[in-house]
């Protein structure tokens, strides 16, 4: 028997990455006590006959890998044990049997399985597998091949497609096998593969590879079989290849998908979070994990959800590619067509069994109906690019007909529907009566949206503007015109400065700084306010979200049913839904009272506890200095911090953007100023207007700084820009 594994320093794995300071971490008991050969008892759900198994082909059981490397295995074992302990009903009998076989393997064989699982699925060249920590690979491969259910495939048995084989070769190897038969070898890998296949097929008429007379199937496929010299030539260069069997890959990826509450398809990096956290490189907030064992009611619900997630991912890859050719877009839309019918069935089933309580919204993200809704929402953009406005409007109406999924998207859907009805609902040369009918349809859509409780105020203001235009076209009497109940928004005073243009970078104008070097418009404005005694950051939402997370730490990570499913969450699952505030309203309001009077103590305590760990959590940037945050908080004041935090807590997803570009403060005067910067031709968005109104309402000093570009020396605008403006210059 080999010597027990050496326990090495877990803070250093040989990389040059800076050490992450974290609390002392003890080795897991399994790493302290494990010898190099023991077999663990079978996991729950394992067949009885898997408790003891004979070693495979070799009398010597492979040694266990060193302790640090075992973290890959320990991480996967933890995932597997958790799933089998509470959600084994989501796995089939065949999958449970595979889990049992895995558990019966030697430590080294388990380790190699997990390391292969972490790689991209597919064939791997044996010569490229480099895991010296497990010793010789041959006995481990033999064990995996001879298990009760083989976990490994060998290429000499199942790799029969020459194209797949050629794709495993390097560019130089492809050139080498092509050159003897065609000195004019292509240069790229795809071209070389195509050239080799063409040469192989052109030789099909030779006697050694001619299809038998009447063998229509062979002639129709035009494939090059493994018996072909062309296949054998490439196989000799490739060498031995192996892969996890498709059943093993699918089963263990499903285990990881269940454990991590997947919202994206599982890939080779699925274990990265667990491993990095286990070795202390990544640290997550400390909270009580309470898994919802009924998140997926049965296996069929899980499989449907998995399939929908993969489809959403595939559609995202297509739509994010930037391609706009019609054939490509029609391919993307074709993925969505069958979803529409299935989605309607989901809506009907959910409507019959569920209410519209916002408290359940975050759990609905793990239903096939929610994923289908996201797919259809994205497909409207495909139809927009295709200019199929009629189908897009019909689909938007479908989405708006339900109030179960993606409720906070309703405002955007209404806006888009009203725009289609306005611009594409009627021809420009249509009769007056037809135009009036179209305008009334737009008006009805806007009125419907304004009565919808899930449409945000910023979206309603856009719809009010469109509604006013329609009512003006219709010539309605004053008594029939819609009277908005939305309050008037406060406006920030405007400061205008001029700056010298110095070209552009990434389609953004660049200006000449006070030192003569090029800078962005925000840095130009920062220099302007520095002359007035301010320090500041160009941080947009970053600083406000950091303050919110620090001040709300005790609320965010307090124990709450169903919102912490794994130890690796940067935020509670319901933070981006209405449920976060509604389910904790009493707690949040009590905490806000505490924030108003003790914000400095809260900031200091949480920072000192979490910043040394570089805790990975929502919204926070550890690059700030605590002294700066305390000065900023003091300059803002308790009431102002409460107003900002309450606005974020009520709808974090919608309110996390749109905050002013610059955060400025003067510690001597104990004064804070928020500045929104706008260059030539830039205007405020509705979310920016809303945040300016919120900040002003709570007594925060806010300014809108407009930058006027000049081609020569900057100077003061003698005319000003209105009663609300101050004009200065950058010399």
Automatic annotation (TrEMBL):
Record's subcellular location: Nucleus
EC number: 3.1.4.1
Main location: nucleus
Membrane spanning stretches: none
Pfam families registered for this protein in UniProt: FAN1_HTH, FAN1_TPR, VRR_NUC
Domain of life, per lineage: Eukaryota
Keywords: DNA damage, DNA repair, Hydrolase, Magnesium, Manganese, Metal-binding, Nuclease, Nucleus
InterPro entries per the UniProt record, alphabetical: Fan1-like, FAN1-like_euk, FAN1-like_TPR, FAN1-like_WH, tRNA_endonuc-like_dom_sf, VRR_NUC
Top EC class of this enzyme: hydrolase
Record's compositionally biased regions (Acidic residues): 10-19
Alphabetical GO biological process terms: interstrand cross-link repair
Reported cofactor(s): Mg(2+); Mn(2+)
Reaction(s) this enzyme catalyzes, per UniProt: Hydrolytically removes 5'-nucleotides successively from the 3'-hydroxy termini of 3'-hydroxy-terminated oligonucleotides
Location of region: Disordered: 1-64
Entry GO terms, CC: nucleus
Gene Ontology molecular function, alphabetical: 5'-3' exonuclease activity; 5'-flap endonuclease activity; flap-structured DNA binding; metal ion binding; phosphodiesterase I activity
Role this protein plays: Nuclease required for the repair of DNA interstrand cross-links (ICL). Acts as a 5'-3' exonuclease that anchors at a cut end of DNA and cleaves DNA successively at every third nucleotide, allowing to excise an ICL from one strand through flanking incisions.
Family, per entry: Belongs to the FAN1 family.
Annotated protein name in UniProt: Fanconi-associated nuclease
Classification of source organism: Eukaryota, Fungi, Fungi incertae sedis, Zoopagomycota, Kickxellomycotina
């Amino acid at each position: 028997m080999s010597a027990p594994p050496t326990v090495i320093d877990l803070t250093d794995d040989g990389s040059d990455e800076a050490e992450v300071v974290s609390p002392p971490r003890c080795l897991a008991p399994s790493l302290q006590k494990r010898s190099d050969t023991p077999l663990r008892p079978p996991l729950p759900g394992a067949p009885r006959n898997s408790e003891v198994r004979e070693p495979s082909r070799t009398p010597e059981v492979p040694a266990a890998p060193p302790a640090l490397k075992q973290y890959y295995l320990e991480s996967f074992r933890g995932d597997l044990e958790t799933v089998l302990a509470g959600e084994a009903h989501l796995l089939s009998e065949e999958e449970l049997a595979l889990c049992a076989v895995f558990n019966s393997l030697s430590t080294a064989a388990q380790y190699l399985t997990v390391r292969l699982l972490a790689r991209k699925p597919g064939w791997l060249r044996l010569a490229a597998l480099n895991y010296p920590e497990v010793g010789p690979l041959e006995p481990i491969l033999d064990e995996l091949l001879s298990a009760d259910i083989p976990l490994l495939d060998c290429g000499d048995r199942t790799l029969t497609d020459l194209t797949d084989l050629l794709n495993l070769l390097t560019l130089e190897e492809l050139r080498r096998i092509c050159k003897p038969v065609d000195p004019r070898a292509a240069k790229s890998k795809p071209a070389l593969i195509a050239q080799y296949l063409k040469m192989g097929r052109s030789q099909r008429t030779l006697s050694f590879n001619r299809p038998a007379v009447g063998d229509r199937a062979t002639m129709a496929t035009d494939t090059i079989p493994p018996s072909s010299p062309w296949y054998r030539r490439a196989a000799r260069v490739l060498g031995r290849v192996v892969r996890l069997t498709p059943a093993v890959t699918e089963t263990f990826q499903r285990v990881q998908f269940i454990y991590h509450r997947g919202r994206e398809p599982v890939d080779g990096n699925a274990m990265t979070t667990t491993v990095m956290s286990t070795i202390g490189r990544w640290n997550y907030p400390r909270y009580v994990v309470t898994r919802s064992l009924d998140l997926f009611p049965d296996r069929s619900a899980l499989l449907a959800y998995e399939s929908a997630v993969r489809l959403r991912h595939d559609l995202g890859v297509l739509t994010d590619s930037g391609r706009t050719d019609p054939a490509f877009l029609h391919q993307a839309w074709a993925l969505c067509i069958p979803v529409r019918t299935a989605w309607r069935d989901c809506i009907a089933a959910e409507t019959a069994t569920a209410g519209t309580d916002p408290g359940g919204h975050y759990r609905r993200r793990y239903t096939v109906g929610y994923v289908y809704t996201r797919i259809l929402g994205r497909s409207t953009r495909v139809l927009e690019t295709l200019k199929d406005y009629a189908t897009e409007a019909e689909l938007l109406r479908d989405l708006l007909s339900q109030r179960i999924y993606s409720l906070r998207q309703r405002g955007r859907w209404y806006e888009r529907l009203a725009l289609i009805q306005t611009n594409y609902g009627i021809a420009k040369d249509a009769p007056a009566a037809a135009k009036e009918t179209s305008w009334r349809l737009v008006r009805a859509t806007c009125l419907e949206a304004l009565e919808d409780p899930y449409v945000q105020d910023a979206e309603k203001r856009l719809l009010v503007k469109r509604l006013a235009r329609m009512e003006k076209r219709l010539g309605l009497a004053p008594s029939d015109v819609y009277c908005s109940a939305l309050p008037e928004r406060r406006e920030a005073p405007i400061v205008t400065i001029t700056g010298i243009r110095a070209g552009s970078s990434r389609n953004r104008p660049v200006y000449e700084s006070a030192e003569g070097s090029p800078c962005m418009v925000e840095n130009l404005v920062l220099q302007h306010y520095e002359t007035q005694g301010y320090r500041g950051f160009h941080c947009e939402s970053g600083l406000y979200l950091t303050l919110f997370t620090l001040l709300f730490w005790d609320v965010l990570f307090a124990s709450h049913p169903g919102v912490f499913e794994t130890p690796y969450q940067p935020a509670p699952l319901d933070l981006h839904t209405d449920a976060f505030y509604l389910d904790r309203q009493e707690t949040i309001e009590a905490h806000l009272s505490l924030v108003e009077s003790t914000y400095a103590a809260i900031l200091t305590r949480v920072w000192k506890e979490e910043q040394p760990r570089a805790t990975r959590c929502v919204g926070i940037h550890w690059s700030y200095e605590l002294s700066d945050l305390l000065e900023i908080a003091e300059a803002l004041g308790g009431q102002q911090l409460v107003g900002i935090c309450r606005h974020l807590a009520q709808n974090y997803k919608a309110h996390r953007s749109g905050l002013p570009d610059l955060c400025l403060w003067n510690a001597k005067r104990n004064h804070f100023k928020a500045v929104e910067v706008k260059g030539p031709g830039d205007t405020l968005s509705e979310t920016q207007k809303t945040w300016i109104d919120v900040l002003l309402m709570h007594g925060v000093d806010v300014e809108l700084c407009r930058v006027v570009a000049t081609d020569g020396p900057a100077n003061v605008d003698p005319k000003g820009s209105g009663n609300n403006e101050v004009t200065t210059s950058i010399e």
